[in-house]
Specification:
Elements: H1 3-11, E1 16-19, E2 23-30, E3 33-34, E4 40-42, E5 45-51, H2 60-69, H3 73-92, E6 96-99, E7 103-107, E8 113-117, E9 133-134, H4 140-153, H5 160-165, H6 168-216, E10 238-245, H7 248-260, E11 266-270, E12 276-283, H8 286-299, E13 305-309
Parallel strand pairs: 6-13
Antiparallel strand pairs: 1-2, 2-5, 3-4, 4-9, 6-7, 7-8, 10-12, 10-13, 11-12
Helix pairs in contact: 2-3
Length: about 300
């Protein structure tokens, strides 16, 4: 069951989504802000947090699951309880549980749940379409001083006295206008002749091309057989992690090295720190993943670890 998807859907509409007998995911709205040093503008958003003390079943999550999956409410409660039991088992064994678009859950040394929220999505619907941007400094006074200096050196003004002293400029303007109109008419006629010529030439070329295509048409009597390729698609939410890299090229290089050694290596995406995660392989069950992890630690990489993450 994709519990993280249901929780994510509800966080858009509610400020508290409780997972019975486990804890509650809370959202708190913060206003838009401007960074004084970088001049960066940040839109309003909802900040995610987790409270382990809130565990009472308010029916919100189970009711939504029952509505989406078309199952009875009691069945939805049992599915949530089963999922919570599995999560607690992973946490006790020191594993990190990742929820897409929500965050990561882990246990600290005192046995309490620590939550690292994800910043990849904004659950505030009022801020839909808004993103962070940076504004440069506005230098109004500098441009104003430059404009004033240009006006002092080269003022632009046409007074009535100047127009009366030079009446021949009016006749020159009228003559220039007549020449422009005459030249435009001649140019338009010339362009129309060129367009007509080009259209006739294009039609002749199309007819010749159609004739050549018809002459060159042939039928293949013995076509080659179709080739069908079967590509194995990896699935599962249990992943044996080989490493995480900031540079994408380094991740591709690591995948190539592991594939040359016979592993079904691939990149499963980026984590909340912006690192590309490379895994040896993915498995459907936790038992298969742990067996593979023990073998990889013994034969190849003692620092390999197990990640529980549902991929979309």
């Amino acid at each position: 069951m994709q519990l993280d998807t249901y929780i994510s859907d509800l966080l858009y509409r509610y400020d508290c989504v409780t997972v019975p007998d486990f804890g509650a995911f809370l959202t708190q709205r913060i206003s838009a802000k401007v960074h004084e040093t970088t001049n960066a503008f940040y839109p309003p958003k909802k900040v995610l947090s987790f409270n382990e003390q809130i565990q009472n079943n308010d029916g919100l999550l189970a009711n939504y699951i029952a509505e989406v999956e078309k199952i009875p409410f009691e069945s939805a409660i049992k599915k949530v309880a089963k999922h919570v039991k599995a999560i607690k088992g992973y946490l006790i064994q020191g594993e990190t549980v990742s929820y897409d678009n929500i965050g990561d859950l882990m246990l600290n040394t005192e046995g309490n749940i620590v939550f690292e929220p994800s910043y990849s999505i904004n659950y505030l619907t009022d801020a839909f379409g808004l993103s962070q941007f940076t504004s440069g400094d506005i230098k109004r006074e500098v441009y104003k001083e430059e404009a004033e200096a240009i006006e002092e050196v080269a003022p632009i003004a046409i007074t009535p006295e100047r127009r009366r002293r030079k009446p021949y400029l009016q006749y020159a303007a009228v003559g220039l206008l007549m020449l422009t109109l005459g030249g435009f008419g001649a140019s338009q006629y010339y362009n129309n002749q060129i367009e007509t010529h080009n259209q006739m030439a294009q039609e002749a070329a199309n007819e010749e091309l159609d004739t050549k295509v018809q002459e060159a048409t042939f039928v293949i009597n013995n076509p080659l057989p179709a080739v069908t390729l079967t590509v194995e698609k990896q699935s599962g939410r249990f992943h044996v992690v080989a490493g995480a890299f900031r540079v994408k090229a380094n991740s591709d290089k690591k995948v190539k090295q592991l594939q040359d050694r016979g592993y079904k290596a691939r990149i499963i995406g980026m984590n909340r720190y912006g690192l590309h995660e490379v895994v040896y392989s993915s498995y459907e069950t936790r038992t298969e993943a742990q067996q593979a992890l023990r073998k990889i630690r013994r034969e190849h990489n003692p620092d390999a670890w197990l990640l529980v993450k549902a991929l979309q």
